[in-house]
Amino acid sequence: MSLISSTSIVFSLVLNIKCNFARNSAKSLLLRKYLGAVSFNNITRIAFGKRYVDTEGRIHKQGEEMRSIADNRLRFGASTFRWLFPLNEEEFAKHVARRDRLTREIMENHNVAHQKSGGAKQHFCDALLTLKEKYDLTDDTIIGLLWDMIHAGMETTTISMEWAMAELIRNPRVIQKVQEETNV
């Protein structure tokens, strides 16, 4: 990701927060929503080489589907704990089928692009597809690895950024120093 595009993403995030806060000044601001959007965009860019949210905050159709799938995983609970929490097996099967369909579509697009260009890009999906035959990876294994990366990356990044923001709020001297360093 170039510095210019990274800067524009952060700038649009700050602008979006300012606009929404100005409209709802009596309400508290939940940063998790905004930070989640940034981490979603970053992790999908790493995994698939594509941004699903533009600098205006609009989400691409495929990105909406991906975000919905990611949010539903939390609703179903991690599949690891299915024995602990009751689960509607039919709904869970639909969720998995929807996730697999979308991911296979993305993988197929990467395969077509690879064949046209004659080389792999530098994205996690492309790396896995390139190594598929060498390490005998199945599509299901690749799908699982991609979604593990998406979920782990989104949650970890969002929580870390949220914690950092809370620490900044608790330390006005540090906020001032950050503002000076970033010319805000």
UniProtKB/TrEMBL annotation:
Mainly resides where? membrane
Q: Name the family.
A: Belongs to the cytochrome P450 family.
Q: Where in the cell is it found?
A: Membrane
- Highest rank taxon of the organism: Eukaryota
Q: Name one GO biological process term.
A: terpenoid biosynthetic process
Q: Which protein are we looking at?
A: 5-O-(4-coumaroyl)-D-quinate 3'-monooxygenase
Can you list the GO cellular component terms from the UniProt entry? membrane
Q: What is the lineage of its organism?
A: Eukaryota, Viridiplantae, Streptophyta, Embryophyta, Tracheophyta
| Keywords in alphabetical order | Heme, Iron, Membrane, Metal-binding, Monooxygenase, Oxidoreductase, Transmembrane, Transmembrane helix
Task: List the InterPro entries.
Answer: Cyt_P450, Cyt_P450_E_grp-I, Cyt_P450_sf
The molecular function GO annotations come to:
5-O-(4-coumaroyl)-D-quinate 3'-monooxygenase activity; metal ion binding; oxidoreductase activity, acting on paired donors, with incorporation or reduction of molecular oxygen, reduced flavin or flavoprotein as one donor, and incorporation of one atom of oxygen
Name the membrane topology term: Single-pass membrane protein
* EC number(s) given by UniProt: 1.14.14.96
